[in-house]
Automatic annotation (TrEMBL), chain B:
<feature type="transmembrane region" description="Helical">
    <location>
        <begin position="48"/>
        <end position="70"/>
    </location>
</feature>
<dbReference type="Pfam" id="PF01970">
    <property type="entry name" value="TctA"/>
</dbReference>
<feature type="domain" description="DUF112">
    <location>
        <begin position="17"/>
        <end position="436"/>
    </location>
</feature>
<feature type="transmembrane region" description="Helical">
    <location>
        <begin position="141"/>
        <end position="159"/>
    </location>
</feature>
<feature type="transmembrane region" description="Helical">
    <location>
        <begin position="256"/>
        <end position="277"/>
    </location>
</feature>
<feature type="transmembrane region" description="Helical">
    <location>
        <begin position="389"/>
        <end position="417"/>
    </location>
</feature>
<feature type="transmembrane region" description="Helical">
    <location>
        <begin position="16"/>
        <end position="36"/>
    </location>
</feature>
<keyword id="KW-1133">Transmembrane helix</keyword>
<feature type="transmembrane region" description="Helical">
    <location>
        <begin position="429"/>
        <end position="449"/>
    </location>
</feature>
From TrEMBL, chain C:
<dbReference type="InterPro" id="IPR042100">
    <property type="entry name" value="Bug_dom1"/>
</dbReference>
<dbReference type="InterPro" id="IPR006311">
    <property type="entry name" value="TAT_signal"/>
</dbReference>
<dbReference type="Pfam" id="PF03401">
    <property type="entry name" value="TctC"/>
</dbReference>
<comment type="similarity">
    <text>Belongs to the UPF0065 (bug) family.</text>
</comment>
<dbReference type="InterPro" id="IPR005064">
    <property type="entry name" value="BUG"/>
</dbReference>
<protein>
    <submittedName>
        <fullName>Tripartite tricarboxylate transporter substrate binding protein</fullName>
    </submittedName>
</protein>
Length: 171, 505, 333
């Protein structure tokens, strides 16, 4: 997928930086591999595979940082831009809003056992829906119906034990 | 002949037919929900099979798994969120078609060629099960090693970005697969003292994270795109017939590759789809169109993953060896219902075997009408406002990840992989390659280490054994080919440039 | 026989029971309702679709009939079984959370994976036990266990290979224990780690390895297909389902036995009265026709022990596993 988007540069890092990140990660993998204990009865221990991967990552990272293989990226531009993409300017701070979903998932993980699925799910729906610019007229009914619908499918049909928490459905 | 008639009689019972229909609808619904896999759809059916007659019990498993594998394509095509690792290979292609306004066409291709592949796989099962089983039995860890490496190389072929970045993504996936104690040494590795990491990183939370969560993240970061152009198709299937006539070779190749890979235990539908998509691009007359919404790759890999699903039953039925997680569950059901796997199943219980074949064919046939209905319903998602779809997807991510093991840690993993996938995509690293690395990692390491143990640390058997040698040549050839092509292009490009430079005053 | 409507019907029944409970709880001052008065959950530390999952589900279905309350199976996977086993131990000891405990509980703490041991549970009943067999390929030169034992003794260390689980897995330890009982070093036969018994059996037939010491139900399809032979079983007596396979003791004179087992347990501090109710119900489940039919169809071995007996089995296994793991250099703790 094309990465460059006008006005959204906050996470568009240079190849130099991502390449160096890969080198660092590869180095960490190699170091971690050397810390693995040997296993009695096996000559090829648990260290070999991460070691090879680590070295590979160091190599790839270096190539990316030196911008080798850029020539292959040329076909990337063949992908037509999304129609009308240029017209709509993205909202301000948009790039950082992108981190809302993972944070909401962490919130789900921490809160679901005490508050229960329905309340947490309603809160998440409401937040995402409003952030995407929906009116309350859409967001509120959705925040009520979506959790109940998902609860019905998963708890009744698939028998997944979603925690009840503070709010229990009357069926 | 009497066995065949008896097989028909066994299938054409009220309870069996109802079981097929109900599990078909169930498989379609579960498979289409992002975050729920075909394996899970099958596993959740096991308690139901307790109450069914033997043939009906097996019928639910066969039907639900075939439907779920197809319907995993639906969210992939409409929202760029693959439902199973098998659809991850061609999700970008299908989504590109959706952006061109051809969502129903792309889904129809998936549906039609899934059914074709499924029927081809069944015919292979019917005609050559014992022969195919011999092939499977001749695969030892040496052969699996080359096969796994070959699978990994598909990452570079499939991606449209720099091959260096594709390889880096794949290596990152392999590094994630090192986590946990499911390695040949059985020691906890890179777990940082966390109990939840002991079992390693499952492909499903990673898949859900890098595709679904990062899609929601992207939606929040970008302005709402204008509504997709929508062209109404008179008939979803009419176009498919044209495609069948246009791409008969890719279709057959997909069927054959799917059947062969499916038979090998440990290499299931995931790998079949990847290898077929890569092959399709390699041998296509128009490789430059791949990734821009070109149906050729969908034809081949769609046929391939459903063909592998049917042939995956060969080692399961003959030797009780599961071809993938779905057949592992199916073997349990077969035993429970007194249809013990083994050659005697083919001789003494031939009528039951014919019944199984008939169910396979029937399941693939009713897939078409039910699938069309499902596509029509699902396509309404495209017209719904983004603000109403994205929150639901995020909830499904959380609940689907949780449901795989009723473990909240999976939700954490999904959040992590969502962030990682988002940052990677922003910088041109293909996330599908990451998923491939996670799926294939343990197979690469396991087959390499166990091979060395078996050969007392000699590398020779990797090249000595006949099948192994052939695979080695194919792998090394595929590995060196792009490098050679690149060098040749460099040389050719340099010469005109040099001439041009010489002519400059 | 529509599976979906069946599911939802069971769901409705369960929900109705839940409502009834809510009704009784809402009236304080009434006598404590008879246990169990609401649905139970049975935690399975392994994934849906496997052998342990299937066993747990049949037990749950039959227990439901005995107790008159739904028993919901919950798969808590992750951490190679550690997560689910911890979940059982740390659940509320109110009698409404039970779980299926597998032999891994006697191994994990020796490997330093968890602090958890068998002593963290209230054992309720042993439901299943399977002894490993000694399987060789049909084309193997060793026709009986004596020949194989001689072959092992006369081969240089590391020449013969065996497989069937990961390094340090249950069947690896069974092999180590057997080798030691014959007076050989634990790594005299080299262990090739595999992802379970089925790939091991496949490799056996493909000629990659020489021995697979996995349980007989796991080897059954290959035995039936005539591709592999089971030379002996590491059990005190022959398995009634496979009466042709001799025990190690009668055929080789080596008295070594081990087994995998599955049993039902609850957290510590479970009130004795509830434990007695559950054990009695489990015993009725064990004796039911449905249970023995199911176990027979899957080829799983039947073995019953009550709470105290199951506790003893766990303690014995724990000690013998510790010994084998220390010998093989696999124990950390």
């Amino acid at each position: 997928m094309p990465a460059a988007r006008e006005g959204n540069r906050a996470l568009q890092l240079s190849d130099r930086i991502t390449g160096l990140c890969l080198v660092a990660l590869g180095g960490a993998a190699v170091y971690g591999a050397t810390q693995q204990p040997g296993v009695p009865g096996q000559d090829v221990g648990p260290s070999v595979f991460p070691m090879v991967i680590g070295l590979g990552l160091i190599g790839c990272g270096a190539l990316v940082a030196l911008r080798v293989g850029r020539s292959f990226e040329a076909p990337d531009e063949v992908v037509p831009p999304e129609p009308g993409e240029a017209m709509a300017a993205p909202p301000r701070f948009a790039e950082w809003r992108a981190f809302l979903p993972p944070l909401l998932l962490v919130f789900y993980m921490l809160a679901v056992d005490t508050l229960g699925f329905l309340l947490v799910a309603a809160a998440i729906t409401l937040v995402v829906c409003l952030t995407l610019g929906a009116r309350l007229r859409l967001a509120l009914p959705l925040a009520v119906l979506a959790p109940i619908g998902i609860h019905a499918v998963f708890v009744r049909l698939l028998r997944v034990p979603l925690p009840d928490g503070l709010l229990t459905l009357p069926w | 002949m009497t066995d065949l008639l008896e097989g028909f009689r066994l299938v054409l019972q009220g309870d069996v037919l109802i079981a097929i229909l109900a599990s078909a609808v169930y498989g379609l619904v579960v498979g289409s929900l992002p975050g729920l896999s075909a394996t899970m759809a099958t596993a959740l059916l096991v308690p139901v099979t307790f109450y069914l007659s033997p043939i009906a019990a097996v019928a639910t498993i066969i039907t639900a798994s075939a439907m779920a594998i197809f319907s995993g394509d639906i969210p992939g095509c409409l929202l760029r969120i693959p439902g199973t690792p098998a659809s991850a290979a061609y999700t970008d292609e299908a989504y590109a078609m959706t952006r061109k306004g051809q969502a129903e066409m792309a889904l129809g291709t998936g549906l039609w060629f899934s059914a074709v592949g499924g029927i081809a796989g069944t015919l292979a099962l019917l005609v050559m099960a014992p022969a195919l089983a011999e092939v499977a039995l001749n695969f030892s860890s040496f052969e699996y090693f080359w096969l796994a490496v070959l699978g990994l190389m598909c990452a570079t072929l499939v991606a449209r970005s720099s091959p260096v970045k594709a390889i880096a993504s794949m290596l990152l996936g392999l590094l994630f697969s090192c986590i946990g104690m499911e390695n040949p040494a059985g020691t906890p590795r890179f777990t940082f003292g966390m109990t939840d990491l002991l079992g390693g990183i499952e492909p499903l939370p990673a898949l859900v994270g890098v595709f679904a969560v990062s899609q929601v993240m992207r939606a929040l970061a970008e302005a709402e795109p204008p509504p997709l152009p929508r062209r109404r198709f008179g008939s979803i299937m009419a176009g498919q017939w044209a495609l069948t006539k246009k791409y008969p070779k890719p279709m057959m190749r997909g069927n054959i590759v799917g059947i062969i890979i499916g038979v090998l235990p440990g290499a299931g539908a995931d790998m079949a789809a990847w290898v077929s998509y890569a092959m399709s691009k390699r041998f296509s007359k128009e490789p430059e169109k791949f990734g821009t919404g070109h149906p050729e790759g969908l034809v081949e890999s769609g046929a391939s993953n459903n063909a592998s699903l049917a042939s995956g039953w060969v080692p399961a039925l003959l030797f009780g060896i599961p071809g993938d997680t779905i057949t592992a569950i199916a073997i349990g059901v077969l035993y429970m219902k007194g249809l013990n796997p083994g050659p005697t199943l083919f001789t003494e219980r031939a009528s039951s075997m014919y019944a199984l074949y008939i169910i396979f064919i029937l399941a693939n046939l009713i897939m078409i009408p039910l699938g069309i209905v499902m596509i029509r319903i699902a396509a309404t998602v495209l017209r719904a406002p983004r603000a109403s779809i994205m929150p639901v997807i995020l909830l499904l991510c959380a609940v689907g990840a949780f449901a795989t093991g009723n473990n909240l840690f999976a939700v954490m993993l999904v959040a992590f992989f969502g962030t990682l996938g988002y940052v990677m995509e922003r910088n041109g690293y293909p996330v599908a390659a990451l998923v491939l690395g996670i799926v294939m990692g343990s197979m690469v390491e396991q087959s390499f280490v166990t091979s060395l143990i078996k050969s007392d640390n000699s590398l020779l058997p990797f090249f000595e054994r006949p099948i192994s040698a052939v695979l080695a040549v194919v792998t090394l050839g595929a590995l060196l080919w792009p490098v050679a092509a690149w060098l040749m292009r460099r040389l050719r490009a340099r010469r005109p440039a040099a001439i041009a430079a010489a002519h400059r005053p | 026989m529509d599976p979906i409507s069946r599911l939802s019907r069971r769901g409705i029944l369960g929900a109705a029971a839940g409502l009834a409970t809510a009704g009784t709880l809402a009236r304080p001052g009434l006598a404590q309702p008879r246990y169990p008065s609401r649905p139970l959950q049975m935690i399975v530390p392994w994934g849906a679709g496997g052998g342990t999952d299937a066993t747990a589900r049949i037990i749950a279905a039959l227990l439901e009939k005995e107790l008159g309350q739904p028993v919901n199976v919950v798969n808590r996977t992750g951490g190679s079984g550690v997560v689910g086993h911890s979940a059982i131990a740390m659940a509320n000891p109110d009698g409404y959370s039970i779980g299926i405990i597998t032999v891994e509980i006697a191994m994990m703490h020796w490997q330093g994976l968890t602090e958890l041991t068998y002593a963290n549970y209230t054992p309720l009943g042993l439901m299943n036990r399977d002894a490993p067999g000694v399987q060789v390929s049909a084309s193997s030169p060793y026709k009986d266990i004596k020949a194989l034992a001689e072959g092992i003794k006369n081969s240089p260390p590391g020449k013969l290979k065996a497989s069937g689980t990961g390094q340090g897995g249950i069947w690896h330890l069974a092999l180590v224990g057997w080798l030691q009982a014959m007076g050989l070093k634990p790594d005299h036969v080299r262990w090739v780690p595999s992802n379970g018994a089925a790939p091991g059996m496949q490799d056996l037939v493909a000629g990659g390895i020489d021995i697979v010491p996995c349980s007989i139900p796991e080897a059954r399809a290959m035995l039936d297909a005539g591709r592999a032979r089971s030379l002996a079983i590491m059990a005190p007596q022959r398995d009634p389902q496979f009466p042709d396979i001799p025990t190690l003791k009668e055929s080789l004179g080596v008295d070594y036995q081990t087994a995998v087992w599955r049993g039902i347990g609850a957290p510590l501090k479970l009130p004795a009265e509830q434990a007695a109710t559950l054990t009695a119900a489990l015993q009725r489940v064990y004796k039911s026709n449905e249970y023995s039919e199911f176990m027979k169809s899957r080829g799983f071995g039947m073995d019953w022990a009550d709470g105290a007996g199951f506790g003893k089995v766990m303690a014995e296994t724990d000690a013998s596993m510790g010994e084998a793991m220390r010998a093989a250099g696999l124990a950390k703790a």
